[in-house]
Amino acid sequence: MEDDDVSILYSHGDKPISQSDLVVCFSADFNRRQLPSSHEEAIESIWSSRCSANKTLWNGSKFRLHSVSTLESGRTRWDLGLTCYKDFLGTNFSPDADLLQEMGKNVAGNLQAFMADPLGVGCVLLTSDNQIVLLKRSGECAEAPLLYDVPGGHPEPGEISGDALNASLFTPEAIVTEIFSSILREVRDEVNLPLHSLSAPLLLGVALNKHSHNRPSSEYLVRTELSGSEVTTLYNTGSQSEASESTQVHLVSHDQLMNMQQTNFWQDLAPSAKGCFLLYQDFVKRSCCTQC
């Protein structure tokens, strides 16, 4: 599973996992490595320039995905640290991002050692009549403007501990709960669907966005009891809290999704949507093979 815009870090194949099957190890050891002072100063400079150009920017904390492994029990383990949006813009989105990756490879044997790598979330949102929900991103979005994307965003450390980021509150259980809860909140806040209409998320895997130098996004399958027309009606009311991030809802059939790489529409997708769809296609194809 590969594309010019995304690669797959790992896939759960025909067995996407529930919240109880994910284990988190949270430690400052999994934060990005400190760069030499000149590069740290460049991060501050990039942030200052960005804030001058966009007064709405704020430096929110994010979880950083360091690594993924499989335990003897069969459960999946994520090693997580903390990062922030400022560091994301100053590393993954830096003009010197290639250099930072090369430094990581040479110094730590890891391309991503100096990268912020904030963990994202996204989902295949499947309606009761087997349609998939996409949103056309606003032209004001910093990433992938005017492209079609799946609902998504980030788990928020502040949802666990508040602005103070009290590390004692970051228990593994609380972090896993926040990760799985965050994708449901994003569906609510972007598409305007009530939480009670959504299924528990199933984790499909993790995709890497090549445009942002391997920024990771965890991708899920979420079902809604609502039909495609009901989803469209709710979206078009415009009362969702993040209505300004997109301009229209777009539905595609399940068959269209499974064959989308062969269409021109594939190029109209944001990298995050491509990663999510590649993981979902892998899930469906392996499920069919298992049942044969």
Structure, briefly:
The protein is an alpha+beta fold and 292 residues long.
Topology:
Blueprint: E1 6-11, E2 22-26, H1 37-53, E3 61-70, E4 76-84, H2 85-90, H3 97-108, E5 120-126, E6 131-137, E7 148-149, E8 152-153, H4 158-161, H5 172-191, E9 202-209, E10 215-223, H6 228-236, E11 246-253, H7 254-258, H8 271-291
Parallel strand pairs: 2-4, 5-10
Antiparallel strand pairs: 1-9, 3-4, 5-8, 6-7, 6-11, 9-10
Could you name the ranges where pLDDT drops below 50 across 5 or more consecutive residues?
Answer: none
Global geometry: globular
Radius of gyration: 19 Å
Main β-sheet, spatial strand arrangement: 1-9-10-5-8
Class from helix and strand fractions: alpha+beta
- Care to count the β-strands? 11
What can be said about the biggest beta sheet? 5 strands, mixed
Give the H and E element order.
EEHEEHHEEEEHHEEHEHH
Mean pLDDT over the residues:
95
**Strand-residue fraction?**
25-35%
Number of helices: 8
Helical coverage, percent range: 25-40%
Question: What key phrases describe this protein's structure?
Answer:
292 residues, globular, alpha+beta, 5-stranded mixed sheet
Would you kindly provide a written description of the structure presented here, covering whatever features stand out?
With 292 residues, this protein is α+β, with helices and mostly antiparallel strands. Helix content is 32%, strand content 25%. The strands form three sheets. Strands 1-9-10-5-8 form a five-stranded mixed sheet, with helices on both faces. The mean pLDDT is 95.
